[in-house]
Amino acid sequence: MASVKISKWIMRNDLGGPAVQVTEETGIKVPAISPEQAVHDLAAAMVKLATDPALRARMGQAARQRLKEHFSWDRKASLMMEIYEGVCRARSRARSHAPQPEWD
């Protein structure tokens, strides 16, 4: 994500983890089927980006926008509040349906 903060495009092997955050608009994901294929495709991606400044600029801006929309601290806080409130509601419902002890 550090490169995205300064509007840089992303190039990654498509191996999960951080690569799942890369879209066609924000960067290039290279499948890692074999070492030879991965090296070949990474080289091709480098050439593509090196020879197309407009593509680099578009991907960089798209990456920056995606970061703002999906990974800002406000967004993370909002998602955490939704999770917390959902857990609290579920716990409250479970308590209201639980049998109550009978006191003599």
Describe this structure in words.
There is one protein chain. The protein is mainly α. It has a domain at 2-70. 61% of the residues lie in helices and 8% in strands. It has 4 helices and 2 strands, in the order H-E-E-H-H-H. It has helices at residues 2-5, 35-50, 53-70, 73-97, and strands at residues 10-13, 27-30. It has a two-stranded parallel ribbon with strand order 1-2. The longest helix is centred in the last third of the chain and has 25 residues, at 73-97. It is elongated, with a radius of gyration of 23 Å. The mean pLDDT is 82.
Class per helix and strand makeup:
mainly alpha
> Which regions contain 5 or more consecutive residues with pLDDT less than 50?
none
Radius of gyration: 23 Å
Distance between the termini: 62 Å
Described by the principal axes of the CA atoms, the overall outline is: elongated
Helix-strand pattern: HEEHHH
Query: How much β-strand is present in the residues?
Result: 5-15%
Helix content: 55-70%
Task: List how many beta strands DSSP finds.
Answer: 2
What strand line-up does the widest sheet have? Answer: 1-2
How do the helices and strands line up, and which of them pair or pack?
Blueprint: H1 2-5, E1 10-13, E2 27-30, H2 35-50, H3 53-70, H4 73-97
Parallel strand pairs: 1-2
Keywords:
single chain, mainly alpha, two-stranded parallel sheet, elongated, 2 strands, 104 residues
In short:
This protein has 4 helices and 2 strands; from the N terminus they run αββααα. With 104 residues, it is mostly helical.
